[in-house]
Structures are given as structure tokens and as C-alpha cells.
Amino acid sequence: MPKDLVNVIKNHNPFLGRVVRDQNVxxxxxxxxxxxxxxxxxxxxxxxEKVSSGDRKVVGITITAERGLGKSHVISRIRHWLQADxxxxxVYMSQCSNLxxxxxxxxxxxxxxxxxVGSQSVSQWQHLATALINEAFNKNYKPQQLINQFPGILAKxxxxxxxxxxxxxxxxxxxxxxxxxxxxxxxxxxDPAYEVFAIRWLAGHSLPQAKADxxxxxxxxxxxxxxxxxxxxxxxxxxxxxxxxIVVCFDEMETDHCNEIGYTGRQVTxxxxxxxxxxxxxxxxxxxxxxxxxxNEVKRLPNAESVVDxxxxxxxxxxxxxxxxxxxxxxxxxxxxYQENGLTPPHPLYPFxxxxxxxxxxxxxxxxxxxxxxxxxxxxxxxxxxDPVETAYNQQISALEFTIQDYMEDKAIIxxxxxxxxxxxxxxxxxxxEILDIVDIKVxxxxxxxxxxxxxxxxxxxxxxxxVAVLQESGGLFVQATLxxxxxxxxxxxxxxxxxxxxxxxxxxxxxxxxLSKLLSPELGGEWVLLKAEDIKPLLAVYCVMRGRENDDxxxxxxxxxxxxxxxxxxxxxxxxxxxxxxxxxxxxxINEETKNINLEITDxxxxxSIATDDIFHVS
Length: 620
Hints:
The chain is of the alpha/beta class. Helices cover 48% and strands 10% of the residues. It contains 25 helices and 11 strands.
């Protein structure tokens, strides 16, 4: 037996932790056997064709299958097919941290989904921006042509985006907020700073005022963020529908909590998907759900008939693999593994026995059971010492290298990651604080969504109650409202308020600065803990592992043990700073977004295209 082959099998198990996650939907997927559940993906392709040809306006498809049968694999297949084919844009939502704000969270999901690469190696936003310009100017440019030209055009005319917006607005008079067009057009500028802030604005977040002014965008503060978010979603989807269908996918949406009127995550998602069906101009709504949840939750909604009619026009059940499917699946995974390592195995199924795989196939196993069996048996002799929790954690750490900035703007996810960290050290004494409990904060409806959780403990023999608020909005009324609540110690029953934030607070926001000064004063003894990506990343990784533990067949106990054994929480800078004696100081390294001005000049415009205002995109 070749030594290299033995060493690779001993040290690398390709089947460990192989559950489809968000990054596999958007990035490199797992090996796909297109014949597995082809009836499901084919139904989606046919629906897209019907919408593209004008035979249908909207098609609602629900995929039902038990956990691990391959729903997310099918969705990943559809996404990668669309990326190569380019016939539709793709939006993917697999979580909602706050079921009372699903419309606002979907707007963020929509903005982040459209920044993913589509066909022609450019983002889906850039496809849409190009389509808008082509129609407005009666041209037929490729996205990359416009992206290449944009720096030169902008250097010659810093107001070019406004000129373009006004031109597009003439053919899109139904757009209620022209700033949506402005932000979409900014995504064509190849400087990442433009894209980041344009997409942040499109996701419903406020920008630093200097950035908003430089990009001719108006920050919107509203008391009804849900209604405003859905209005923006509707306008964006209508713009897309003028050019291409859109596939909107809700994948499982499993949560362990309900919204304020008692609906589960599946029910909230189903109602929202139904509302989308009513508003979308052209597209396919794809929902994946467990059969019992479809029957016992969605079909028991008060308005179940209208919901099912919209999102369950076709209900497709996934099939269990047979013996031939198991052989095809395993050989496909092994083929990729050996090719990546430059090795030739003795036979395509090595080191497995074909007979054992066929016996497994006779049991009609779920795909996840097949992969787990392979993970457990991928060895020659004596192999198999990898910790599955560590494998899942390392996968999440690797994924966060590319997605961490998205999470940095997600208050709910960061707060949940911090809360998990504190739960893992419950009973410990850290920074002279004995951690007794971590609880949610009881608030009235008007105070909901600002403060995140409370740490109850003892410090030097005295009871301490620390309220934590993650605050990543750049500006606006939300910043002011959060800081005001953070200093209301008596109302929310706390002894200390703690702000977790990466950005400076605008010095021109007088009321917010007043609240901040009071929080950090010796009188209240509050704290501002600086949020940095490198510090929150390990906590985000274990939170993602915990959230997906059922998919990975991991227990909560094993994950908590892994956090403790590897000191992920107890040595974490943010955790320790929240508990430590408050400094009363504003962090020196907080990001000053106001002074990081967007540079509208470029240093090298020697290759810039000569463009007149009345024919902006004339290409020689």
C-alpha cells in the first residue's frame, strides 16, 4: 500500500462534519450526485422556465423531507446551477434571529444574497445595476465593462451616480425611493468601500452622515422598521423582476422560540413567504421544511388555505437513496477527495467494502446517515481520533474568514454568541465576578429590541447585574434609543450597563453623546467594550456550531465541554472586558467612520474613458 495513501487516509477524513451550511450554498459546494432527488431540482428548473417565458408570474414550491435527507444539498445544487446558467437571481435565508422582525431581517438577507457572485464572475447587485443602465441608455454592456469604466467616469464627474439615477428614474417612475437606485448603481464601483456602504444602506442600516452625504443617500429613521423594510424589499424585487426571475429560498428556518403572538419560526416564515408571493413581480418561492412541521404548524395556521395555496402550489417529497444511489454518492465523494490529494486508490470505493455499502443502502438511509457511516469507517487500521465538535468548529472558523464582516453588522447574532459564551462559564469566577446566571431582560413592547441580555453575579460579595447591549448601527434614532435605555438602571433592574460596539458615536449626535457620557460617568459606572472581529470570531464559530448541532449530530453537552476545554469563552477579551472593572473611557481604537471619507478622486486615470454627460457610457 503506498505510504502517501495511508497517511492521507489516516490524517484526513473527508466525511467528517459534512453538513451543507450557508457557505456551501454560496461558495464551493460538496460533491453533488445530480441523480439524487433530481425530481426536486428539476421541478424548480421547470418553474423558472415557466416564469422566464411568461407562462407564470410566481410559482411556490415546498420541499418536505426529514432531517438529513438532502434538502440543503438540493438547494445548493440549484444555486450553483443558477450561478453557471444565469437565468435567475438567487436569495437564500436559513435563519431569523428575531421572529418579530422577519421583514427587516429578510431585507438584510436580500442585500447580502445579492452581493454574492452570480454569473460572469460579478455580484448579483452588479448584474441588476448593469441591466438598469442598459435599459436607460439602450445599450448592451456586460457588467465588467461598466465596472472597469466606473473609476474614470467618477473622476471626471463626481456626480455621475446622480446623473445615472435620474436617467434610470425616467424609465422606472414607480420606484418610490430613488435612493434605492442610487445605492444599486454604487455597487458598480470596484472600490470595496463603496460596495460595503451601498449594501449596508440597501440592507436597511444607517450610514455615517459623511458617507451618506458623499454617496447622495438619505438615512431613513422610522418607528415602523418592519413596514419600511418590506417596502424596500418590494421595490428591489420589482426592479429585479423587470429583467429576470428571482428564486427566493427559505431553508428550514428552524428556531427554538416563537414570536410575540406565539407563532413558530416555520409559521412566521410561511406567512412571510405568502406575503412575498403576493408582492413579487416574477419569481419562484422555494421553502424547505420537515413534514411534521408542514402538517402540524403551517397547515394549522388560521389562514392556512391561502398560505398553502401560495407557497405549496407544488409539494415535493424527497426520496430515500437506494443501494445504487449510496454507491454513486460515496464514489463521487471519494473521487473528489483523491483527486484533490493527487492519489490513485486501489478501487473507486477504497477503503470501503462495496457489499457493506449496499447493505446500508437496503435500509433506505438518509443521506446524512450514509455520510456519518463513511466518516466512522474511513480508516485502514486504527484511524478515527478526530473530535467532531472540533471539526465543525474549524469549518466555521474557516467560513468566517469570508463572512465575518456580514456578522459584524448583525446585532442579534453577536448578542447570541456573547450570551452562549457567558452561559458556558456559568458558575465560574472571572474578573472577580462569580457568574450566577444569564437571563433575558423583561421589557415592554416599546423597549423590545434594544437591550440584549443580563448577567447576574456576585462581585466582592455584592450582587451585580450587568445589562449588555450590542449596538452596531452607524447612527440615527436607534443609537440614541439604545443608549437611553442602557442608562435606565432602575427600570431594567441592573447595576451596570455595558455597550458593545466597534464604531465611534457621531460627535454631532448631541443627545446620544449625552447618554453615553452619563453611562460612562462614575455615577453609573457603565462600560464601553470595543467589538473587534478577531475577538468575536471564536464565539461566533461556537455559536454557529451550537445552532447547527442537530445537523452535525452533536450534543449541547459536548459543545459546551469543547468551549470549556479550549477556554474559548474564559480567555475571550470581550467576555473579560464586560466583567472587568469599568474604565469609564471611550475606546481609543473605535472605528471613526465619519472621518474615513470616501475618496472621489483616483490617482491613475490615464486609461479613463472620455465620456460626456449626455452619453455617459460611450465605449470606444
